[in-house]
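REQUEST ID: PR-0412
SUBMITTED BY: lab tech R.K.
PRIORITY: routine
TASK: structure prediction, single protein chain
INPUT:
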Amino acid sequence: MSQANSVSKYKEILTRYKSYKNILFRGQKNKNWDISCSLARDEGFLNNESTIISEVIAERQSDFANNELPIEYLAKMQHYGLPTRLVDLTISELCALYFAVEDDAEKSDGIVYVFVDGKLYHYNDIEIHALSLLAFNEKSNISELCSKYYKKFDSKIEESEFLDICRGNYIIKPNNIFANDNDRLLIQQGTFLICGNTVSGGKIINSINAIDRNQATETILIPYEYKKSIRDELDSLGISSRTVYPELPTYAEHIKQKFAVGPERKVDCKVMYKIHDVKDISTRSDKRLSISIVLDGKYEIEMIKKAVYDVIEKKMRACSVIWIYVALNDEYLVMSNWILRALWVSDSAVHKPIELKEKESKNISWDFNENFQATQEMLSDAFEDDKYLFVCNLNFYFSIKEEFDILNNYYLQNDISSFVSEICNGTKKIRERYFHMQDLGRSRNPLFDEYLELFQSLISTFDEIASISTRNESLENKDFYLFRYLMSDMTKSIKLIEEQKLNWKNKINVTDSDMATIKYVKKEKIYKFNPTIPINENGLKVDFDLNIIVDDDKKVIIQASTNLFDDAELMISINKNKRLFAQDKVKIENGKFKSAKFTDKGNGYESGDYSLEILLPIASVQPKSFVEKAGIEYENLIGEFVERSGVSPIVKYSKNFKI
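STATUS: complete
OUTPUT:
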């Protein structure tokens, strides 16, 4: 998932697909909408599909005078906004972007779906004929449907074949037949996906097949905050409602939108936000403030900037440097996921900080986050129920506190030997708790989340003490001084946890029953790659020819030849008993690669069994020259070493050897 805050960023994202021939787009002004045909959006439409078509044709015969094929009738009806089983697509990346940023009273984020190298069907293919004919008829009698198919297209179709076709959805190859008397479709460079029906027990069910959004090769988020500025960019490029929808009523609407001062731009910026935190970060020479604010709703980016100006105006007389961090809502605040940062520096500042990326004037500079929306989408599963968080953190805390009390007793008695021994014996438990507590999640309430940070601080400090104790064979005086500070930090965290514990228990209404029944559940993160581009059956069958060279000093060099395309960047690893011993990054040149000399801290390796792994990481970190040949999903690579699981396809070759 990507994010575009401008036309130029949008085009930049799409450059990774420039080597592909068949690319189709669909823009939607609400990212939460399913990709669905209008017929499926209302039960009444779905139950009366053939009736709607019959009535429209009967009433408007002249409008369909030039149409012959059922798919042509459906295309014309789609143009006029009638409910059909068609879904609009376009080959124009800018038209799709326009549809994603159309004026939106709901203030929703838009999205563009990119479909790469999927199978396309000619409007005269059997699949398109069958599903378009299906729309005109009752679905219950498959035998009658096959008979009508023969009568209409002078070609036989078996019942089993008709049913198989109904199970799918099909993208129609862009063509001019639909645009002959449809200026809008011609201008939008549009085509369609035609939806099939559910098939069960050898019967066609009155239910439209779902369209899986995950089948899009790329999804590009368009934040509401940038829709207006992107619309203005598109207008300068000749893409607007007046060109996309050439009819006069739509052009009139375009003029109104272009010159009207909408209600949002009349909002008083003083009521758009609340100040969450003001920190004094002054230096000896300059009074400095760090201010975080949270917006109370969704606003265009220019309005958000006005809110920042308002904060600066209120604070500028009292200081010489102001940092401002803007969060869209509490969830963004908790994750420190800022839509923008601003820096204001007075002329009188003695030491001026380095300016941010975009300088507006000698006093103000900005850093606009290019991925705030996409980042938050990825972090959305990090949030948990507050009761669950309170109970789980507290239960872990009780066990930590018990062990801390034992350690603190040794520490206060200056019994460092027993202190270290106790830590070393419990290191495994400490580490397990550390990972479990890291896994718990975050609260949507910023203040409660700050309280939970005390638990994280406590276990992190405990883990640091354990790391120092176990990694040093002989502790030095500096380690004992560090223990003192770390134990002091743990004492402070415990004090703060205890002081606020009852208050938060009451605030989020945690009962004794909750304390007894809520249990920690480990999160299982399952990564499953969903291919969106067909695998090339005639692709490159990846192979390696390795030479593992062990010299007299038991140092190792890996030399190899491969049929992988040049410029691929590989990671070579040597392991023993699942422990990484050495690693090197190499590039394929002229079908060959060679590692650096692997050593054990300059010495040769001990005799024994080792394993070698050669890894071709995911395409997103590979040079463009290689990806253009291998494919963005490595669809042009095949064979036993290609793994299409996890986050994204990789190539992995393993071999055991002896020293």
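NOTES: The CA atoms of residues 3 and 371 lie 6 Å apart.
REVIEWED BY: pending
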